[in-house]
Amino acid sequence: MATRLGNKEIKLVSTDTELRQMITELNESKPSLISVDAEGWDISRDGTLSLLALSWNDRLIYVIDVQEIGPSSFTRIEDIALNSRWSSVKEVLEDPTTLKLFCDPRSDSDALYHHYGVHLKNTFCVQLAEVGVRRQNGHTTRYVKGGKKITLEFGGLTGAEQVEWERLDREASAKFFPDKGGSYDNLTSRPLSNLALKYSALGVLHLQKVYEKLEGRLSRRGKAWVKEESRKRVEEFLLPSYKQGKHRAIAPAHWGATNRPRRYEYYDIDDDYYY
Predict the structure, then answer these.
(1) Could you count the other beta carbons within 10 Å of the beta carbon of residue 24?
(2) C-alpha torsion sign, points 90, 95, 100, 104
């Protein structure tokens, strides 16, 4: 299955052959930065990881059907060329020299590690970067913003792109998420629907543009803070228990001593937040 979203083609990876082709393309491209997003049934150690979207250029998004391929989605592919940098998706995600962009890596990391033994390395959380930018502007920022607000504010979307983004987000939320009247079963049922494929790709569609805008506004100290806090978010899977909930909307409390806030900023955590 192949379709388009914005100016990018979406390629579904649902067989070992397609997975091999994707890894080959990765090795040929040699990206230093990859946008990543996962979807599933209550994605976490207690839920499932069904789809994994990867994008590293401005023309293509790969969506791996992890539910269909199974654990071999992350295992070594033996017949990949010997001089290749990576022979599995696991090696890509664990590569300490390749930056992986996430909106919020916590649930993805928890599911990837507990279900498939993948320990994410070298990540950058754009949700935390947005917090860092607000704090540099003098705000005492208690809460994080959701991916929708961050994308629309920093993604540089055209009017048409914004309409498409909001329409797809609205349709998918109503179809897939219980708190919006939908069901996770609609996301995990097979054959995969075109809506599920597009929604999975939506998480990485504008992520690199958001990263570039936010990273460009962060100070050197701010960038270091985001990288360290991103690492801590990834490694929450080490905790014996990991719970979803509104407490996850609270931003990390500390910020550099030279970045003392001047005014308080309020944010409605019920308005838009990915739990």
Answers:
(1) 15
(2) positive
User: Torsion-angle region of residue 138: left (phi > 0), alpha (psi -120 to 50) or beta?
Assistant: left
Which whole number is the average pLDDT over 234-248?
78
Q: Give the SS3 label for residue 45.
A: coil
The C-alpha torsion from 111 through 37 and 211 to 90, rounded to 10°, is: 60
Q: Is the pLDDT of residue 264 over 60?
A: no
List of long-range contacts for 255-259, beta carbons under 8 Å, 24+ apart? 255/132, 255/135, 255/225, 256/221, 256/222, 256/225, 258/221, 259/135, 259/136, 259/221, 259/222
Q: Mind listing the pLDDT tens digit for each residue in 46-65?
A: 999 999 999 999 999 999 99
From CA 73, how far away is CA 92, in angstroms rounded? Answer: 12
Residue 141 tokens, joined: 């920022």
Q: Sort strands 51-55 and 60-65 into parallel, antiparallel or unpaired.
A: antiparallel
Amino acid sitting at position 267:
Y
